[in-house]
Amino acid sequence: MLKVENLDVRYGAIRAVNGISLEVNKGEMVALLGANGAGKSSTLLAVAGALKAASGRILLDGEDITALPPERIVRRGIAMVPETRDVFPDLTVMENLRLGGYIHRHDGQGNSEDLARVMDLFPILKERGEQAAGTLSGGEQQQLVIARALMSRPRLLLLDEPSLGLAPKIVDQIFALIDQMRSMDITILLVEQNATQSLQLADRAYVLSLGQVAASGKASEILKATDIKAIYLGQETRKKKKKSRKR
Amino acid sequence: MSQLLQFTIDTLSLGSLYALMALGLVIVYGILRLVNFAYGELIMVAGYTLYLLSASPVPWLFMAFTAVLMSIFAGIATERVAFRPVREKSVTAVLITSFAFSTLLQNAALLFISPRARVVPLPDVFSQTVEIAGAVVPLRNILTILCAVLLLAGFALLLKKTVLGIALRAAASQFRMARMLGVPANLVISVAFAISGFFAGIVAIFWLGRIGSVLPGIGLGPLLVAFIATVIGGMRSLLGAVVGGYLLAFIDVSLAHLLPSNLLQFRDAFTFTLVIFILLWRPDGLVRGPATGQRT
Amino acid sequence: MTSATRSSVIGTLVILTVPVVLALVISEALGIRVVDRIATIFCINLVLVLGLQVFMGNSGILSFAHVGFMGIGAYASAVLSMPLQMKGMALPELYPIVKAIEISPYLGMVVGGLVAAGVAAAVSYPLMRLSDAAAVITSFALLVVLHTIMVHWHQMTNGPRTLFGVQSATTLYIAAGVAILMIFIALIFRESRTGILLRAARDDEVAAGAIGTNISNMRWRGFVLSAFMAGIGGALWAHFITSFSPNAFYLKETFVILGMLVIGGAGTVSGAVLGAFVVTAAFELLRLIENSINLSGVLPTQLVGLTEIALACAMIGILIVRPSGIISAREVAFPDALRRYLPGTHFTRPKQSRSADEGGTQ
Questions:
Q1: Which residues of chain B make contact with C309, given a CB cutoff of 8 A?
Q2: Pairing state of beta strands A55-60 and A63-64?
Q3: Alpha helices in B54-138 (DSSP H)
Q4: The CA-based dihedral angle spanning residues B285, B288, B289, B294, taken in that order and rounded to the nearest 10 degrees
Q5: pLDDT under 50 in chain C at which residues?
Q6: Which positions in chain C touch B82 (Cβ < 8 Å)?
Q7: Which residues of chain A have pLDDT under 70?
Q8: Which of B217, C56, C177, C316 has the highest CB neighbour count under 10 A?
Q9: Which residues 249-278 in chain C show a CB within 8 A of chain B?
C-alpha cells in the first residue's frame, strides 16, 4: 500500500532521514522504532506531506505522492496524528472533529454518521463536546487527535508517539484503541518509543537509527531476537557522536 | 447630557471604522504572521474606483458595490504578487515585498490619475444630520455604527458556524495541522486576503464619506490606525483588533477634547509612543491570541 | 579578529572601494555637472545603505526607523552649522542658545551622527528584545514619532515647511571619503565579536541565547552604530541638497534606501555597495528620462512616480528570485592569486574566514 524508497529529509544542513526505505501492506500494522532523533517523526511527516523530501520517493498504491502538499495527501486516504498533539486549542472539541471531516464536508450525512461512530469510540469527547480543546487533559487531547484523524476516513493512519507523556493507565487505553482500529480495516504505521508494547501489537517493525533502517522484520522476531534496550543504548552513544559532529 | 451623547456617538462611529480597519489587517496577520504593508492601498483602490465611476450614470449603491469588489480583488492580487512567491522563503522578504507593492500601487495612482485629491461621489444621506436628544449627529456616523455592528456579527457567525470559518480559525493557530486535515493552504490564505479586502472596501466607503476625496497617500492613515489598534488589542486575536479599534477611537476622541491645541498636533507622536509602551509591557497586546502557532 | 579574517576584510574593502573610486574618476574625467551630482548622490546613498546594513544585515530585523535618524542628523548638522545671520531668517523661532552657535559643517556632520546615535541609544534599548512583526511595527512607530516631531518642532526644523539656507559643504571628494570610511566600519563591525554574535542570533535566536549571548544588548549596539551612520549620511545629504523639509525623511526615502539594500543583499556589506550603486544609477537615469519627457511636453500630463514603480517592480522581482538579494551570504573576496599582493597582510587561505560566513545563508 505504502512504499517509501530511499527517503532523505533535511532540516537545513542537518540530515534527519538518510535513505530510509520501508513498506506497509494493506491491513498491516507496522511499527517504527528507535531512539530520539532517529528520524521516525520526520519520516511520518514526509509521508504526510508536511515535510518536503530532499530526495527519494513515496508511493501510495503505486502512485508517486512525494511532491503532493499535505492537503492533497489526506484526500488520498492518509491521515496523520502528530506527536505534538496539535489540537486547535481555541476551537471546541466538536469544531475540532468537524474540521477532521473537512474533506468530506459536502457529505453531511456521512460526516454525522462518522461523528456518531467516533463518539461511541471516545465517549469522553461527547461529554467535552463544547469545551475548548486546549482545556482537555493530555490523554483526552490524544483521543481527540486520533478521533479527528478518523473523521477523514483514512485507509492509512500515521500515528506519531501516541503514548508520549501519558500516564501508564491511559497508555493502555490508547493501545487498546489502536488495536480496535485495526479491526476497522485501517492500515497503521505507528511510531513509538514504547517498543515492547507496540511490538506486541504490530505485525512488522523497522528499527531506525541515525536516519537509517538498522533492522527490520516480523514484530515477534524483532521482539525475540533483539535486546531492545541494547539497541536503544547503542543508539544513545552513537547519537552523542552525531551531536558532537554537528557542533 | 447631549454632550455626552455626542461624545459617545463620535467615539462609537470612529471606533467602528478603526475596528474594521484593524480587523482587515489582523485577519491576514493571524493566519500568516505577516504584516501586509499594502493594506492601506486597498482602501485607496476602492476610493479611486468610486472616483472613476463618478462620471457614469449608474446608481451610487452600484458604485459602492463595485468599489468594495475592486478592493477585494486588490487584496487577492496583493497576495498573489507580494506574498505567495516569497511566503515560504523569508519573513523579511515578505514585509519588503508588501511594502514595495504598496509603493507600486500608490505611484500607479500618482502616474495614471493625479497626485492631487479627487472628489468622490457620495449619496445625500452622508451629508444629512439627525437630532438625537439634543445632539446633532451626522447620519453617516449612525450608518457607520450600524454597518459595523452588522458586519462584525456576520463575521463572527461566519467564523463560528461555517466549516470555512472553523478552518480559518484553525489555520490561524496551527497552520500545518489544518493542512494535514485537508484544508488547502492557498484557499485559506486567499480567503483571508479577500476578507481583508472586503473590510478595506467597506472602510473606504465610510472613511471617504468623512473626508470626501481620495489621493494616492490616503492609505497611510488607516494603515497606521490599524497598526496601533492591533498592537493595543493583540496582534493575534480578532476580538483584540476590535477592542483595540474602539479603544483607540476613545483615546483619539478624548485627546481631541482634552489636549490643548498646541499639543494636539503631536497627537500621532503621543499615540505611537503609547504603542511602543504597550508593546513593551505586553508584546502580545491586551487580548491574547491562540496559544501556539507556526508559519506555513 | 584572526589574521585570516583581517586579510579578507582588507581584500573586500579594496574591492568595494572600486565603485566609489570609479564614480569619482568618471566624474572628474567627464567634468559634467550631472555626473558629478549623481556620483555624489551615490556616495551619500551608500553611507545611508551601509548604516541600515549594519543593523538589518547582521541582526536580521527590518528597521523602518533608519530614515528618521537620517533626518535627525540632517537637521542637527544643518541648524548648528547655519551662518548666524541666516538663522534669524530661516528659523525665526530658534532657541537663543542654538542661535548663538555656528560650527563648521564638517564638525556638524560628526555632531549630526552623534546626536542621531544618542537619540537611538536612549529610545531603542527596550525595543531590542522584540522580534518579528512586533519589532517591525515598533520601528515603524518610531519613524512616525520622529517624523511627527520633525514636522511640528517649528523652533528647530521650521515645521513642515522647507528649511532654507543650509551651508553647502558636501563635495564629491568628501562624500566618497566618508563612504569608504563607512564601508570599512561596516566590514569591521560584521567581523567583530558583536557582529558575529548578532549573525548567530539572527540564524538561531534560541541557540544564541543559550550560549549566554545578551541578544538585546548586541542588537542595541548595532542599532546605535546604524543610527550614527544614518545621522552622518543625513548630514552629508543636508549639506549637499541645502534645502529640505521633513517629508524627505519619511516612507519614500525609506523605500529607496531599503530597496537598495534588499536588491543588493542585506546580509553583506558587498550587497549594500552593489545595491546602492545599481539602484542609484538606475534611479537617476529613470529620473532623468522622466524629467526630460516632462520638460519636452510630449505628453499632455506630467509623469510622476514612474521611477518608484520601476524600483518597486525590481525589488519584488529580486526578492522572488533571490529572497536574500544579489550578494546574499558571502562578501566578495579577493581572488586567491592576488591576495599576496595586498598591503600589510601575509598570504592565508581564505578558508577560515569563510566558515564564519556560512552561517549567513538564510
A1: 103-104, 107-108, 111
A2: antiparallel
A3: 60-78, 91-112
A4: 80
A5: 344-362
A6: 316
A7: 225-247
A8: C56
A9: 251-252, 255, 258-259, 262, 266
Cβ partners under 8 Å of residue A50, min gap 6: A70, A80, B176, B179, B180
Q: Which of B30, B14, B39, B31 is nearest to B233 (CA)?
A: B30
- The CATH number of B2-281 is 1.10.3470
**Cβ–Cβ under 8 Å, residues C183 and C273:** yes
CB distance C267 to C328 below 8 Å: yes
Instruction: Nearest by CB to B275, from C126, C132, C141: name it.
Output: C141
- In the sheet with A63-64, reading across from the earlier edge strand, the strands are A14-24, A2-11, A55-60, A63-64
Which of C251, C259, C305 shows the shortest C-beta gap to B110?
A: C305
Chain B closest-CA separation from residue C225 CA (Å)? 21
Q: Identify all chain C residues contacting B227, using CB atoms and an 8 Å cutoff.
A: 137, 140-141
Beta strands A187-192 and A204-209: pairing type? unpaired
Contacts 24+ apart (CB under 8 A), C9-13: C9/C187, C9/C188, C9/C191, C10/C342, C10/C343, C10/C344, C10/C345, C11/C333, C11/C334, C11/C339, C11/C342, C12/C187, C12/C269, C12/C270, C12/C331, C12/C332, C12/C333, C12/C334, C13/C183, C13/C184, C13/C187
Query: Which residues in chain C are contacts of B84 at CB distance < 8 A?
Result: none
Task: Give which of B34, B23, B9, B291 is closest to B170, Cα–Cα.
Answer: B291
Chain Cα centroid distance, residue C268: 13
Neighbors of chain B by Cβ distance (3+ pairs < 8 Å) = A, C
pTM of the model: 0.84
**What are the chain B neighbours of C259 within 8 Å (beta carbons)?**
100
What is the Cα–Cα distance from A96 to C253, expressed in whole angstroms?
48
Q: Measured between CB atoms, does A69 come within 8 Å of chain B? A: yes
Handedness of CA B100, B106, B107, B109 (dihedral sign): positive
Tell me whether residues C316 and B97 touch, CB distance under 8 A.
Answer: yes
Q: Please write the tens of the pLDDT for every residue from C320-355.
A: 888 777 887 778 776 655 555 555 444 444 444 333
For residue B156, count other CB atoms closer than 10 A to its CB.
14
- Domain ranges in chain C are 3-248
CB contact under 8 A, C133 and B33: yes
Residue of B nearest to A154 (CA): B181
pLDDT digits (tens, 9 = 90+) for B202-251: 999 999 988 889 999 899 889 988 988 888 887 778 888 999 999 999 98
Compute the residue count for chain A: 247
* DSSP β-ladder status, A2-11 and A14-24: antiparallel
What pLDDT does C341 receive?
Answer: 57
CB contact residues (below 8 A), chain B span 128-187, against chain A: 163, 166-167, 169-170, 173-174, 176-185
CB contact under 8 A, B178 and A134: no
**Chain C residues with CB-CB distance to B103 below 8 A:** 251-252, 255, 308-309, 311-312
State the best of A81, A92, A99, A151 to mutate against chain B, taking most chain B CBs within 10 Å.
Answer: A99
Grid cell in block for residue B115 = 497626485
Distance separating alpha carbons of residues B20 and B246, to the nearest angstrom: 10
CA distances from C202 to B156, C47, C57 (A): 38, 23, 9
Residue B9 three-state SS: helix
Q: By the 8 A CB rule, do A157 and A79 touch?
A: yes
Residue A208: strand pairing partners = A213
Best CA proximity match to A76, nearest among B163, B170, B182 = B182
C-alpha torsion sign, points B169, B170, B174, B180: negative
Q: Measured between CB atoms, does A90 come within 8 Å of chain B?
A: yes
